[in-house]
Amino acid sequence: MTRGLLTTAVGSYPKPDYLLKARNQVARGKLDNKDLQELEKRATAHWIKVQEDLGMDVLVDGEMYRGDMVTYFSENMEGFAISGLVRSYGNRYYRKPIAVAPVGRSRPVSVEWWQYAQSLTDKPVKGMLTGPYTMADWSFNEYYPSREAFIIDLARSVHEEALDLERAGAEYIQIDEPAVSTRPDEMELAARALGIVTKGLRAFTITHVCYGDFASVFDQLIRLPVDMLDLEMANSNYELLKLLKGNSSDKYLSMGVVDVHNHVIETVDHVKRGIRLGLEVFPPERLYIDPDCGLKTRTDEEAIAKLQVTVTAVRETKKELGIE
Amino acid sequence: MIATVVGNYPKIGVDAQSPNLRSAISRFDSGQITEEELHRIEDEVTKGVIEEQLEAGLDMITDGQIRWEDGQTYFAGKIQGFRITGLIRYFDTNTYYRQPIAEERLQWQGPISLRDYRFAASISSKPVKAVITGPYTLAKLSKGPFYNDFKSLVMSLADILNQEAKALAQAGASVIQFDEPAILNNKGDFPLFQEAMNVLIRGVSSKTALYTYFGDISDLHPGFFELPVHILGLDFVVGTRNWAFLKDFPTDKELGLGIIDARNTKLETVEKIIEAIERASKHVSLNRLHINPSCGLEFLPRSNAYSKLVRMVEAAARAKELLS
Description:
The complex is a heterodimer of chains A (324) and B (324). In chain A, the strands form 2 sheets. Chain A has a 7-stranded parallel β-sheet with strand order 1-10-9-8-7-6-4. Chain A has 324 residues and is α/β, with parallel strands linked by helices. Chain A has 11 helices and 10 strands. Chain A is 43% helix and 18% strand. In chain B, the strands form 2 sheets. A 7-stranded parallel β-sheet of chain B has the order 1-9-8-7-6-5-4. Chain B has a two-stranded antiparallel sheet with strand order 2-3.
């Protein structure tokens, strides 16, 4: 029997109320970091259990200890200062990193959290990194004379981090690059930086890319130096698959089948139709199934329901097609 | 020479004592304060932002667009026929806006920004520039399933925003600015853009400005300089190629010189700003120059935005002495 159609997730899950409250208290000096970390561990354990109970194949730690995917790494690196509040959208604000000196890593940033999450399960847990292009694009730069110099320096640091994750035992390493498709004229630079990150890695490498005009960068996208592309498909009605059709690449695809920006839970049939569309383009052994993006903006119930419908749709499809 | 801004200003103040819009909106969302109370806080924050711009020494200000969730929603939310939907990335920035969808014929139901303009004008000792998101950009960032083609959507919005501009002009707005960043990414649409501009400014008695940012006007030149407005605003930070076109800048128009980087915290030196003003003054006389940031300042934290304005005003004054 053919194997394949593994289920996974993109990265983040919603933070429980007690964690949001605790983070707030830490910000106001009413709780210390050690207590916060205990709560973050508790929340991580909750999400590992949710994923195991659902029967997912490749797990994520849910990013309970990260505020923002860029700020988290920069706060734990050298060379960055953190700005005052800037608005992301609506009433959402965040603090943006500022490169004020050469950026670099004095110690591993994410390895301990990966080890903790992996200690809770026998299923593989992905190591999750933010890519150099996105790190630079979502930071202010007061130090480097060019974006290129900034991005390449970051790529070296992210590569070191990936090596550390691999040494710790991570079989999957995902390098998120959501900013990569925003500027077609810098795609070549972004690809070069990603190549520095993945060079010599034995782990299975993934990059998650979202929100972009993929058509104009597709040729470069499909050649990014990773084993697997993770793309959102549900919220664009699987239009992207048309681009992927007939490509000769041997890449794996992780295909998003539920929209993370919508409260409505997709039906099993709807998701199954999406999976079938994916199978028209990719063989099951090179196709993974997941939500479009991180689920952190959904409620706990919505996130679990979206994972559940994903897993059920995959299970039924596998049964119908005789996939192991 | 006029020192001014392009549009929005960071909503969150540095001083913990000042009224906080972020917490006000979140209290409003959870039903703890009424809409009237929220509006009162918006007014207070607007007042603070106006005072800050005046303190920095600007000759012409905006109301800081404190009540704008984003440039699209603020107008589209009050145009009949639009429904406001999910989040979309705003150009190549790390900010998001809610996408308006024209589901029915669009109709102007009365002034949208007039009350806010009047409020700002009543408390400012310097002229207040009224800002309107232009019809082309508004259409490009929306979807228009009701309309058979993109052109009908653009022209319908040109007509609606023309009525808005006339209402502002009647209320005494001395300068009305239209923001049209989207034309720089869609240069093939320039004939349609020209047509929309003609409708947009018809019967508007105020001085009109057209501001573009996030790019340059290559391929639009020389038609761009012939557009029927009094002031043309260009971004010289992202759009460095714009320098090359200044030699042909028309003698009967004013130039919005976007030379302060509104997307990076790095503070420009006085010398660098003077140099840029001098460079522009070789082609456009000083009395026809508006010195301003490259785009709205909301990509920056408040303290950085203010520092940049102070620096800009200082450099503009020195340049005036040196070059007059």
